[in-house]
Amino acid sequence: MTVPDAPVTQIEKPQPAFEDCQFYHTVDLPNGTVHGQWDLRPNVDAYLGNVDFQDRSVLEIGPASGFLSFHMEKHGARVTALEPSMEHLWDVVPLRNFSTDKWRKEFATHITGVRNSFWYLHHLHKSQVRLIETVPEKIPDAAGDFDIGILAAVLLHTRSPFLILESVAQRVRDTIVVTELHDVTLGEQSVCRLLPHPDFENFDTWWSFSPAFFVNALRLLGFPHTTVNVHYQKREFDGALITLFTVVGRRHA
Q1: Are 59 and 164 contacting, i.e. CB atoms less than 8 angstroms apart?
Q2: N or C end: fewer C-beta atoms under 10 angstroms in the chain?
Q3: Quick one: what percent of the chain has pLDDT higher than 90?
Q4: With b meaning 16 or more CB within 10 Å and e meaning fewer, what string describes 156-188?
């Protein structure tokens, strides 16, 4: 797959009004807790692979509300968060009889609210987190090089997950962290499963992965030293604890 070169645009925005925000992650604000789709607060270190972020530079793909961005910054990281532009957004499954254009317009409203929540928290925390827009499948040299790359529950929403992982690997000197939903039916093999099919109209989630898929992929990309941990995170709409896994790959032991 050939991906065209893209510029790197640094984004800076004023703090939006609270009512214009949609929080993807549950966060604690001065006037109380705002509930999002996921509450990572009790077990966030496991979610991030128990990596030490002190004095490390981090490239995070798809920060959403920025909960992880600001958590890593609080623990000493210099964070650059990467989003695709609003013109690109994320990949949509090409379902028959599905209006992609209509969905994109509706999704644009939602994602604008989520990105507003990032800037609301950015100003609230007086954060130094840097936000850039570029093509995640081919991150340009101009984005810089980093100690750590974070891909936290984003690759399941992308058409070409290995391509994005490879793109991140080219910008990372030391450690890559990949977190995804844990589908135990995939077993111990290095596999990913295509989820959408004609009788299941799942338009924004492409894949489920085994942990071994990322262990193998990271080794291929030059990160041979890997660890895997399984953990549980709270899904807010029903309070269920959902099983996820995190693979940490390192270039050096």
Answers
A1: no
A2: C
A3: 81
A4: bbbebbbebbbbbbebbebbbbbbbebbeebee
